[in-house]
Amino acid sequence: MSSGSYYVPATSRWPVLGSLALGVMMLGTGLQLVYSKGMFIMLVGLVGVIAVMTLWFRDVVSESRRGLYDEQMDRSFRWGMAWFIFSEVMFFAAFFGALFYVRMFAVPWLGGEGAKGVSALLWPEFVPQWPLLNPPDSSVIGPRDVFSPWQLPLVNTLILVSSSITLTVAHEALKENYRRTCRNWLAVTVLLGICFIIIQGVEYFEAFTHYGITLEAGIFGGTFFILTGFHGLHVIIGTLILAVMLARVYKGHFKREEHFGFEAACWYWHFVDVVWVGLFIFVYVL
Fold first, then answer.
1. Which of 52, 113, 143, 178 could lock 108 by a disulfide, CB 3.0 to 4.6 Å apart?
2. Long-range contacts of 15-21 (CB under 8 A, 24+ apart)
3. pTM (two decimals)
C-alpha cells in the first residue's frame, strides 16, 4: 500500500453487536448485585462480549497480515489505545477518589472532626478509625479483621512487578528479532499473570471465610472488593491478551519494526501493574 493512502475498513457490525452484548452484561450485573437474579443474563452478555471481541480482533489481525494498514492507521491505533488507557486511568481514579473521600473526610466527620463534624450527632458512640471494622450503624456488620499486607498482597506485588520486567525483556527481544527469547519471556509473563490470579482467588477465599470481608461488610468491604475486584478483572483480561500475543508470536506474526498489537498489550499490562502498586499502598499498607 502506498504511503499516501488511507485504509478505510469495510462496514462492520461488530461495534453495534459489542455495544448490545456489553449492555446485556451490565444489565445482568446490576440485577445480580441488587436483586441476586441476574446471573444468567450477565453470563449471556459476557459470552457475547467475548465472542464479539474474538471475531472483531480476528478481522483486525487478518487486515494487518494482508498489509492493509499504513502509517496513518498505525497512528490511529496508537491514539486509540492511548485514549483507552486514559479512560481506564479515570475509571480507577473514581474508585481511588471514593476511598480517599471516605478515609480523609467522611469517617473523620462522623467522629466529630472537620467542617462537618456535626455529623457525629448521628452516631455519638462511633470511633473513627481505618480500617473501619466497626461501622457506625449497628445494622451493618464490619469485617472481623484485615489482611497483613506483607503476606499474599506482597507476594502478588512482587509477581506483577516481575511480570513487567519479563514483558519488557520479551518486547526488547522482539524489537531485536530474537523470537525464541521473546517467546520464552512472554510465556513467563503469562505464567506470572496466572499465578497472580490464583493467589488473588486464595486471598478472596480467606477474606470471606476467615476475615469476614464481604461487599456487605461496611465501607471497607465495599471499597476493598470494588478496587481489587476490578483490578483482578483487568489482570485476567491482560493475561488473555498476552496469551493471544504469545500464540501470534509462535505463528510468526509481528515484525521487528511493525508489532503495535504486541506493543499495545505491553502498554495495557504495565498500566495494570502500576494500578496494583497504588492498590497495595493505599488499600493494604496505609
1. 113
2. 17/48, 17/52, 18/49, 18/52, 18/53, 18/56, 20/48, 21/45, 21/48, 21/49, 21/51, 21/52
3. 0.87
Do the domain assignments include residue 59?
no
Q: Is residue 96 in a domain?
A: yes
Q: How many domains does the chain have?
A: 1
Burial of residue 191 (number of CB atoms within 10 Å: 0-12, 13-18, 19+): middle
Let me know if residue 147 belongs to a domain: yes
Q: Please report, for the domain that includes residue 233, its CATH number.
A: 1.20.120.80
pLDDT in tens, 129-166: 888 888 887 778 888 888 889 999 999 999 999 999 99
Closest CA to 60 of 18, 25, 4, 2: 18
Query: What domain range includes position 230?
Result: 70-285
